[in-house]
Design goal:
Bound molecules: 5'-deoxyadenosine, iron/sulfur cluster
CATH topology of the largest domain: Rossmann fold
Strand content: 15-25%
CATH class of the largest domain: Alpha Beta
Shape: globular
Structural class: alpha/beta
Oligomer: single chain
CATH architecture of the largest domain: 3-Layer(aba) Sandwich
Strand order of the largest sheet: 3-2-4-5-6-7
Amino acid sequence: MERNTTTIPQADIDRQLTFCREIAQMNAARPEQPLAFVDTYGCQQNEADSERIRGYLSEMGYGFTDDEEQAQIIVLNTCAIREHAEQRVLGNLGALVHVKRRHPDQIICMCGCMAQEQHVAEKIKQSFRHVDLVFGPHMLWKFPEFIHTLLTSRGRIFQIPDEAGSIAEGIPVVRQDKVKAWVSIMYGCNNFCSYCIVPYVRGRERSRQPEDILNEVRALASEGYKDITLLGQNVNSYGKDLDSPMDFADLLERVNAIPGDFLIRFMTSHPKDATQKLFETMARCEKVAPVLHLPFQAGNNRVLKVMNRKHTIEGYLDKIRALRALIPDIVLTSDVIVGFPGETTPEFEDTLKVLEEVQFDALFTFIYSPRVGTPAAKMDDPMPREEKLANFNRLVALQDAISEKKHAAYIGKTMRCLVDGESGDSRYPLSARTPGNRLVRLTGEPAAIGQFVQVKITDANKWSLFGEMV
Ligand code: 5AD
Ligand code: SF4
């Protein structure tokens, strides 16, 4: 099969690194090291992209700050998934007008999914004139060139070509964490769920070469990372565009074979390509964490069909049963949308039935938010907002009760947990994760951060577990 994914030639990335060196020379001549602030919104894919932006900035000689007054360069890496996320970004971006008045040399950049939306870019162009650089996810690899242009000539840059997307290897990264790491394995989405903006802003599905992924995981394992999450909008489609016949289960098997004491997680999965082979691989691979995030979005088949989900609820429940038969203690989480256009309250109640039946450990619940350019945004949406809110509250109340019950069942158990940071709570100063990624607040000393320890669970509420090291 012909590989239809474009890879950015190494020479082009090298050229970007040359821009970095030129900027680093300019920065070295300044009296103090200039600082940059990278502000990330949205999902882990954006976190991973921000780590590459920081990697480039570090090569350019910038240090980092969280204080916009101190920053020479401010980058807002944005999310377009729901209106609320967009409002937050526009509010924060708007407020920067005052900051820039105090620091006229500041460079303000907007990137990520919102930047890729034509109507948003147009709005920034007209009404947010303090923003110097807007670039979409497809142009991230050219970030040094854009900064170089802004530093050496005047003007604003808007780079949001509508592309299927490419793969860029060899971009430096500065990771935010020493215990957990993200590894993108693929980009984009081909599913076009009718409510979702992602396929329009992130392009078509494209997989990184397995060797590039395996090398990255090997390096992380040898640096001592303990928790590695393989990322993609739809990881179960991994490999469909590769020359070598390789699917996500095969990749998981090969990542699992890398020596080291670390956990492997992955997200997000689509039910339509979550296969028996994947479940068997998860059960067999000792490093793969016993947890699956498998969004079902709605419990009613008519609604699923209009959502263009390409699976039925019976098919979904069959898969859950098959998975539980292989891994009985699997931790299951999901995403649900309430108030999709045309969803009636009896149809919504089918979603509640799925919660009752599956008993998810946790649920990410959203009220439908129309996105410009998606088919659902043009559909009739007669249900009043109050009714949607009432349904949403019923959903949250039911899940809270289920989560509380599930968490209570952990009390008295001892399990191997990864201490991943400080909690900010003086009674339980550490934060840790069970193998299935449930949050544990833990007594103990910060020296344990980054280690696997045996934890006895002593208490629980609907949000988290509490425990002590044994
Ligand atoms: N409105 C509400 N929720 C959405 N999601 C995606 N698009 C929308 C939208 N337009 C939710 C889905 C998806 C999660 C990441 O965000 O549940 O799985
Ligand atoms: Fe959006 Fe559906 Fe693709 Fe997920 S699978 S990113 S919900 S279009």
